[in-house]
Amino acid sequence: MKSFKSIHAAYLATDGFLARSELASTGAARARWTNLRSHNDQAYYVMLFAQLEQFVDVQCRKLIDTKRNSKVWKNRRLWDSTDPDRLQFMRKVALLTRKGAATYNKIDQYYDVRCDIAHGTTLAAGAIVVPVAVLDFRQFARELRQ
Amino acid sequence: MTQVTSNDVTERIRDWVSRLNGLYSKLDTWLEAIPHDRVEREMLPQVIEPFMRQFNVPPQDVPTYTVFKGRNRVAFVPSALWVAGSNGRVNVTTNARQHVLVDRGNADHGSNWQLVVEDFDRPLVPFSKSQLVRLLLESE
Strand, helix or coil at A26? Predict the structure, then answer.
């Protein structure tokens, strides 16, 4: 999550500007600022999620490397054939936290939203609250750290 | 994996309206001890969200709540219900700015309304009577 803080800071700066512009306008102009603010939320959301994806990738590689170092072949055989480059994101998450448990399910929901935006769906205004996502992504990172 | 049905979407909207009314009842209670001029409750057509479109569920009317005190006002207007990381969002607008209130609760433990604040490290605080007072005073 190397750039997480600076991306978050950039979000706060841009959202603050858009929020002030929204509040200072009326009618169609206000609706335009509201729309811009929603796009801004979604753009920063994807960037912040990408930081979480990178973190998960690094932690997953750490775990695989550790397991591959086992001296007992029976303990490492599955890990020897686990190629992190070929694992999908939620498969990596399942290596770091229990599949089906609360953290896994929450990350899965956030991942669905990330995929929707990344594949061209424009979400309803208000569907992303970046500060909530920031709080949860930080918590996920604490829980998934190896 | 459980398949979502139109009944689930309809039920979730019904629950949303119920939780909003629960929030406003709490505001009514807090306002008994907070000086203010009046409260206005209105109904507003719900924003159409992707799940509603997908399952052909029509929008319902959702309640809004506005507190007036002199020239100040605090308006609670429901925004999206399907919000990543929370169970619904209410926009809270004062004369000075717009805030966001999110329900971080779940079906097991009920609503847990949290106010988004401009704090880099602690962006959510529990929504309380003192927060409502702060919002009412914000534009003075």
Answer: coil
Q: Say if B92 falls within a structural domain.
A: yes
Record: contact A12-B89, CB cut-off 8 A: no
Q: Are the C-beta atoms of A8 and A48 separated by less than 8 Å?
A: yes
Q: How many domains does chain B have?
A: 1
In-domain check, residue B24 = yes
* Predicted confidence (pLDDT) per residue in B22-50, tens digit: 999 999 999 999 999 999 999 999 999 98
Containing structural domain, residue B40: 6-137
The 10s digit of each residue's pLDDT in A3-25 is 999 999 999 999 999 999 998 99
Contacts A132 to B, Cβ<8 Å: 83-86, 102, 104, 116, 123-124
User: B86 CB near a chain A CB, below 8 Å?
Assistant: yes
Residue B86 in any domain: the answer is yes
pLDDT at B140 exceeding the cut of 80: no
Is the pTM higher than 0.80?
yes
- Does B51 map to a domain? yes
Interface of B with A in 23-42 (CB under 8 A): none
HEC string of chain B?
CCCCCHHHHHHHHHHHHHHHHHHHHHHHHHHCCCCCCEEEEEEEECCCCHHHHHCCCCCCEEEEEEEEECCEEEEEEECCCCECCECCEEEEECCCCEEEEEECCECCCECCEEEECCCCCCCEEECCHHHHHHHHHCCC
Residues of A with CB under 8 A from a CB of B: 8-9, 12, 16, 19-20, 22-23, 45, 106, 109-110, 113, 121, 123-129, 131-136
Supply the ipTM of this predicted assembly. Answer: 0.88
